[in-house]
Amino acid sequence: METSPVLPTAQTRSRVAWRRPFEAWLDGIEAGWAIPLLLVMFVAVWMAFLALAYANADLHPDVLEAWSVGRTFAWGNAKHPPLMGWIAFLWTRIFPLADWSFHLLAMVNAALALWAVDLTTRRFVRGDKRVIVLLLLMLVPAYQFHAQRFNANSVLLVLWPLATYCFLRSFESRSALWAVAAGLCAALAMLGKYYSVVLIGGFVIAAVLHPQRRAYFTSAAPWLSTLAGLLALAPHLYWLAESNFAPLTYAQNGHTGHGHTIAAQEAGKFLLGILGYFVVPTFAWLLMIRASLRRFVSDLRRMPAGPLLLLLIFAGTVVLPAVVSVAIGADLPALWNLQGLFFVVVAVIVATTFPVDRFDTVNLAVAVLLLSVAAVVAAPVHALQRNTEGYKEGRHFYRLAADELTRRWHAISNEPLPAVSGDDNLAFATAFYSPDHPAYGRPFRLQYEWTLPPQRKVNRGWAALCFLDDATCLEWMQRVQERQPTLIRAEFALATQLWGRPGVRATVVSLMAPPHEAGPRPVTSPSNSDDFSANRRQGALTR
Length: 543
Fold this sequence. Notes:
Blueprint: H1 20-27, H2 34-53, H3 61-69, H4 83-92, H5 99-121, H6 128-137, H7 156-173, H8 176-192, H9 197-209, H10 213-217, H11 221-242, H12 246-255, H13 260-277, H14 279-288, H15 293-301, H16 305-328, H17 342-351, H18 358-389, H19 398-412, E1 419-422, H20 424-433, E2 439-440, H21 455-459, E3 462-467, H22 471-483, E4 488-498, E5 501-513
Parallel strand pairs: 1-2, 1-3
Antiparallel strand pairs: 3-5, 4-5
């Protein structure tokens, strides 16, 4: 279903000068430049936010892990499917290993997600309503704060709307091409995160409940989609079988084991959390159509086939995980479903048959712009607060610890540091920030088990890091040292500062084993080893 463009009337055009650039921008939607401009500005504004808000912090451990996963090609790993690692690998073939590079990856991913949503929106509407969908979605945290960490969750922001678009085209046309595309995109979503099985379940539920189900299921489309998806997943399924389904074991150990009462409470929080994400865009939308509320309700009752399919998919992606989580006693964070919020926004806007006043659309655009600029203005406050309070994962100290460990390593060995272990966050960070880029030294299948490193790995050269207040990590380090007393252990203190203000401090414990065949050099105590690291952040932290 396609409707005529929503164009401004003479009455809706404003004579206020500051509104004219916004109206000219809205006029450019169907010309093809307005929405790309919106997405470019979106990336630029939120890149500025990330640069300021995290001026004194290194990358989040999830991002560092995604990069570590992608260093070697594999059809899977023991925690998540492989797609996030593949994307991180390809990204670093073009862009450098730097914080800004992965901030850019995160924001480009979010912008592509909004573009993918627009693919579906423009199947049904033209003009202002296309951009209204995107502006309303910018009022939820999915595309800025949730998206800022490129990981297995945020990668779904693109994949879910892309798979939905292909499924919608397949359901409408039942052509072989779109059926295969739907299957391939669904498989890609599964390679992003296994939670995408609820999207596929939503497709099935929506197709079964939709009034046009007979035409769809009597065609070859659903079976072509299934075959294409299974073929695309075949290498990963083989890997799963060969690895004894390690990622599923990880998910089971990490998210199940709750009683049915607790699981029911988790499901309730999940549903309430999803409703909570809609509060701000719902308020904004109702304010925009305040004079047409009765007609809006009437339009929802006569919802066309396309938006109805989207709402049925959304219902499936919400009800299905809630029911399953109660049945198996699993937790269920609402943020796992953030990539599915677009279903409702698109369905509601495209089902509305009356035009939205250009005056209100401009107001919405200005509100989104002002909120985004306000976030950028407030970003330094966030950085200063974190400079004195720190992060629970220790993000202030990753680069400092990596630099100091590398310096100490080269004081005892001429060889690059080959492997690093210990605290996962410090190990991932050292692999990323150290110029030696050592390998993450613990098998991913044992990421949450404190097993002793293989002796052959230690003999080739190995190091480990722990925070001094991490008793579990220090106990493990002690066991490693008891097995091989010749390992070199040291402590070094780290401090940060931001824009001339002193920040948080931490002490890190290192354990180093130089290559066995080379033998250690005479160890000289680095200067200020008991004071704060000479590699502390200098001056205004201009990185």
